[in-house]
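call fold target=2-succinyl-5-enolpyruvyl-6-hydroxy-3-cyclohexene-1-carboxylate synthase
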Amino acid sequence: MAIHQHVLNLVELCVRKGLRQAIISPGSRSAPLTLALARHPEMTTRAVADERSAGFIALGMAQQLRQPVIVVCTSGSAVYNLAPAVAEAYFQEIPLLILTADRPKDWTHQQDGQTIYQTEIFGKHVKRSFELPADFIHADARWFAERVTNEAVDLARTEPRGPVHINIPLREPLYPTGEETFQYGPVRVIEQVTAAPALAPETWHQIQQEWETAERKLIAIGQGPHDPALLAILKKMSDEWRIPVVGDAISNLPRNDEFGTQLDVFLGGTDEEMNKELVPDLLITCGQSFLSKQFKLFLRNHQPRSHWQIQPHNRLADPFQSLTRLIPYEPAAFFEKLFSDIDYQRFVSNDDDDSDDHFQENWRALDRKATRLVSQFLKDDAVFHEWAVIQRILDALPVESQLHVANSMPVRYVNLSGLAEQQQVEVFANRGTSGIDGCLSTAVGAALTTDKVVTALIGDVAFFYDRNALWNSLVPPNLRIIVLNNHGGNIFRIIDGPSRQPELDAYFETAQPLSAENTAKDANLVYTNVFSYGELKTALADFFTTGDSAKMLEIQTDRRVNAEQFQRYKQLVQDTFRGI
């Protein structure tokens, strides 16, 4: 029997429950975990030295797989470095299984190396923390470890999904000798049965009655993955029932005639009279966070009479401060049933839909006007600035590819532009905590898990903050990195508060003179640097073509010019929508 047979059994149990991917940060105390994972024939393991990057790479993989990915690190401060990724996974509801090696509690605060307080170290940012015993002499300890592992894996993938932590104290010796038997199992798998969502008939009756009594209805979609079934039923409801459907770029609602995606443009300029015409009687939301600040402010200041949130769990969030009904249901299934039931009732009673056509047209007309404004503004090639650069990049993205947008200005620019339906590009962004840390690592993790072209669109500060994403041998050839280098945190020059402060240059923008070229060379990436629209057009001609290595495109802009152009756009919005 191996020294740490319980660790072998833990890994075997994970495999039996469908976990096949693990990201491992090297360390000595975690050696039993590393060897147990690396030697299992059904487990794919990858080594990432920087724990902060490792956590986000695992997050990017789990985001694609929709299954827990295992993350392993050694004891001590290494564990703390996983915290940003764990927090992002928690709020973005992405399943991770965090396995942290630890010294036995006997050695805490005894001046021994790499020993800190690891029990429940992630606090409320995990669904639950477990800790295994350090000794397994008694049969109850083995039973406990097996039960905990079953519970932890199931908990990570139960709605709302999220990270689960198992802290594992390990005694020396940590490394097996050649005389030991290295055998997995046997283990006992406890199957968790999931139930299909169901609402009581009387609840459905109340929902249908409330629906029918609301003349003006608005459906708003928050952040979520591309969901063809959801898009299909929303298109049907928009077309047949004349209901406006709106969302952000991170909602994966495409830009088309059915959906409104330019909320941040026109809601920043409409007057109070028009705002009153846009207020719904019934607001129906699903998905996670909304990116558009103007949309959030609009609904907080003009609250609907009723507000339903549709989601597959009961965790309550009320970002518009108007929630009246939380409905635990898968959104696509809910809308399909709602449409089917109401459509049948109207057929039986020979009733026509009494939706307000004028209400939908108000939303659509403003969205069309905003789309034209943005298009005309960005076509102007007299000034080289980063938003116009991003629009040209979006237009060049390969069909059925993925776009991973970093936080700060890139995700806001993408949201203001939107993506055309025919491109079929899936959009991802770390909007759980909305930090700049880990944006590149997440894209690396995604590219490891899909054959699609994965484009990481990232600003210079976020890139340099996370360039250890490339400090490994994992960077796949389907990854494309576009670095928007304006040599500082440009968002602080654009938003009102810090832009008016005399400390802007010294303490907010974090000006830096670096180029990404050396990082690209270190990572063996194909690198191109551009300074103009002409150079950008030439570079994009073959940037997305397949090859043997990943590619990086660095685009140099002037942050002061970027800020000036954005202010020009804001004035154009005010001039266009004033009085509407």
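return ok
The mean pLDDT is 94. The radius of gyration is 26 Å.
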